[in-house]
Amino acid sequence: MQPSSGERHTSLRSLFATANNQRHKLDSIPDSSSAAYQESLRSASTAFHECRQLIDRLAIFSPNETEDDISSGDLQYLLIDHFLGELILKDCIKDRKTVLQQARAAYERYLKLLDQYDMLSKVDSNLYQRYLSERDDFSLLSTSDPTARRNTKVTRYKQEQELKLKLEYLARVPLTLQNDDAASREIYLAEIHLCTHNTFHALDIINQELKIIALMPFASPAPQPEELAQDYRQRNGIPKDDYSDRLDPPISQLLGNGNAGPILSKDGKPLRPFTLLDSRQRVQDGVFKQDHALPTMTMDEYLEEERRRGGIIDGGGGQQGRTQAVDEDDLDKADMETMKAREWDEYVEANPKGSGNTLNRG
After folding, report:
1. Which residue, 223, 257, 220, 219, is CA-closest to 238?
2. DSSP label at 208?
3. Is the pLDDT of residue 2 over 50?
4. Strand, coil or helix: 270
5. What b-and-e string marks burial along 183-199, b requiring 16 or more CB atoms within 10 Å of the CB?
6. 236-250 pLDDT, tens per residue?
7. CA distance 178 to 73
8. What local confidence, expressed as pLDDT, does residue 344 receive?
C-alpha cells in the first residue's frame, strides 16, 4: 500500500526538521576537522539529499508555477540546495577542488530554482545574469577601482546586517502570530533573501579558491618505497643485482667513484682530485714517524720564551701592596708622616661622611 500524499508531506517535514537540527548541531562542535564533526556533517548532508529526492518524487516545485502557488509551509524547502552547498564546503576529507565544484553546483541549483519562480530581487537578478555570463570569472567586486570596491563591500555588508536584523525580529514573533500563514510566509521569505545574499558571496569565494588551486603545481602521487630505493640506486650507479644493506659503501665502490686510476689524462687534464706535495723525501720521512705530535722545545726553553713575551712577572708577588715601615731614626720622614696624618684628621672632621651627598635627600 502506497503512503498517501499527506503522509509523504509529513515525512518530508520531519526529515527536513531532522536535517536542520543536525546542521545546527555542527555549531556546537568547535573542531571542524575532528571525526565527530565530519560524522555529523555527513549525516546532515545525507538527510538533505534525501529531502531533495523526496521533493522530486512529490513534485512539490513545478516550472509552471509562480511564487504565489507555493504554500507557506513549502517555502522552506527552497533552501535545501543552499544548505547543501554550505555543508559541502565544510568537508575536510575529500579533494578540495571536487568539494568546491560540488558546492558550486548546489548553489547554482538554488539560484536556478529561485529564478524559475521569479523570487530574486532586482539586484540579485542582475547578479545572477552576470554570473551566468561569466561563470568562471564571476566576482562581486568586478571593478579595479579601490573606491568602488570599498563602496561595494560596505553596501553588501549593510544589506546583510539589515536582512539579519529583519529575520531576528520576525523570529521573535509570539507563537500566536507564528501560526498565522502570512507571518510564517514573511519569515521564510526573509530567510530566503538572506541565504541568496550569502550564496553570491560563497560563489565569489569559490571562484577565487579555484583560481588559486589552478595555479598550484600538479602534485604527483607519492612514490612507493620500492621506487625510492630504485631511484637511489640509479642516482648512485649501483647495479640492481649488487644491492646491500651496508651503511658504509664497499671499497670497490669507493675506488670506482674516482679514487683510483690515473690523475692526469694524456692531454694533461686532471681526472680526479689530488694533493700537491713539496718533495718525495718528505713523504718518505713521514712513513715511520709517530702518529702523534712530538714536543718542539724543552721546559726551560718554553719558560724562557714566556718570560720574553711577558707572560712571567719577576719579583712582586706577595710583597706588592705592602706599605714600608717608616725609619724611626729619620726625623724628617717621621715629621712628614705625622703632618700628613693630622691633615687627614682635620679633613675628616671638617667633612663628615655623607655631607656632600645633598642632591637625593628628601
Report:
1. 257
2. H
3. no
4. strand
5. ebbbbbbbbbbbbbbbb
6. 665 555 556 666 665
7. 12
8. 93
pTM of the predicted model over 0.85: no
Grid cell 537578478 — which residue?
125
CA distance 76 to 275: 87
Q: Which of 91, 140, 84, 137 minimizes the C-alpha distance to 110?
A: 84
pLDDT of residue 341 exceeding 90, the answer is yes
Residue 357 CA to residue 359 CA, distance in Å, equals 6
Dist. CA 80–CA 13, nearest whole Å: 12
C-alpha 30/C-alpha 133 separation (Å) is 39
| Closest alpha carbon to 275 in 263, 286, 265, 287 | 263
Which residues touch 206 (CB under 8 Å, ≥6 apart)? 89, 100, 103, 104, 107
DSSP string, 76-112: GGGGHHHHHHHHHHT--SS-HHHHHHHHHHHHHHHHH
Torsion angle of alpha carbons 147, 151, 154, 156, nearest 10°? -140
Q: Confirm if 75 and 46 have CB atoms less than 8 A apart.
A: no
Contact 110, 103 (CB under 8 A): no
Using DSSP's 3-state secondary structure scheme, residue 264 falls into: strand
